[in-house]
Design a protein that fits this description.
Blueprint: H1 2-15, E1 25-28, E2 36-42, E3 45-53, E4 59-68, E5 75-82, E6 101-109, E7 114-121, E8 125-133, E9 143-154, E10 163-177, E11 181-188, E12 197-207, E13 210-220, E14 230-238, E15 242-250, E16 256-265
Antiparallel strand pairs: 1-2, 1-8, 2-3, 3-4, 4-5, 5-6, 6-7, 7-8, 9-10, 9-16, 10-11, 11-12, 12-13, 13-14, 14-15, 15-16
């Protein structure tokens, strides 16, 4: 019974679960409005375009191409380039275009939302910035979805309740109040928990392309999870077709849950 109960929690958890480690966004230092960089990631490769200023206070153009260093620490390193080209109102002249190597750069994520950028410019020195994703406008997430989730439950006091590989399916309804709060109701349709209804509700924190939701989870129906455990939903955001994220928390019996979800928007 407890195992089925934990499965119920997992389904809900995963239902509002996660994005992989993908850092595409606009980043800036909140103490230095007007300074920052754009980052676009493709698998283990990152392209950065800086908006910074030279010794004369005028905009200076640098780009960097970084790759995952393979250490498992979400650190990307590579070269920095100083690009030049044709004066913008004139027809493009390829002969005036150049991108000589100008130094090195490292992007190291400290969590889903924050990072440290270190870059060295030849003959100038090294700059270290603590940066955060830059928030633009609210993302609408309210709607009806259908999706699935995968993850694991581990560290349970009773090892029989551990589930190293979890899979589940659900229908999901999301309500949202701008950037203030969100409620997600999961109606489970998998064979194990058909009829179980769980809700996660709480305040939203919006950083760049991502949201974080810290809230409570309540369940009714078959194998309903008792109480109102607190959960954290990280890297929550709409996709081109729906919504995705990652949920983690502590469940009954000392269990630790980490679940990822993706759902397609129905209407």
């Amino acid at each position: 019974m407890l195992r089925r109960l934990v499965i119920a929690v997992l389904l809900l958890a995963a239902a509002f679960g996660a994005q992989g480690k993908e850092y595409t966004d606009v980043y800036y230092d909140p103490a230095e409005s007007g300074w920052g960089f754009f980052l676009v990631q493709s698998d283990t490769f990152q392209f950065l375009a800086f908006f910074i200023y030279g010794s004369d206070g005028k905009p200076t153009w640098y780009v960097a191409t970084l790759v995952d260093d393979g250490t498992g620490t979400d650190t990307f390193t590579g070269q920095l380039f100083a690009t030049t080209g044709t004066y913008f109102p004139l027809p493009w002249n390829p002969a005036l275009s150049s991108a000589p190597a100008a130094g090195t750069a490292t992007f190291k994520a400290t969590d889903n939302y924050h990072a440290t950028l270190t870059y060295t410019v030849n003959g100038v020195g090294t700059v270290v910035k603590n940066v955060v994703r830059q928030t633009l406008t609210p993302y609408p997430m309210a709607g009806n979805y259908s999706g699935s989730m995968a993850g694991s439950v581990s560290n349970c006091t009773d090892p029989n309740n551990n589930m190293p590989q979890f899979r589940g399916r659900y229908n999901l309804t999301v309500g949202q109040s701008g950037d203030a709060s969100a409620t997600a109701t999961f109606n489970f349709v998998d064979n194990v928990n058909n009829g179980l209804v769980c809700t996660v509700s709480g305040p939203l924190t919006h950083l760049g392309r991502l949201y974080q939701l810290n809230g409570q989870m309540t369940c009714t129906g078959p194998n309903a999870f008792p109480g109102n455990p607190l959960v954290t939903i990280d890297a929550l955001h709409p996709t081109g077709q729906g919504i995705e994220g990652k949920l983690s928390g502590n469940l009954v019996g000392g269990c630790t849950v980490v679940l990822h979800f993706s759902a397609v928007l129905l209407n």
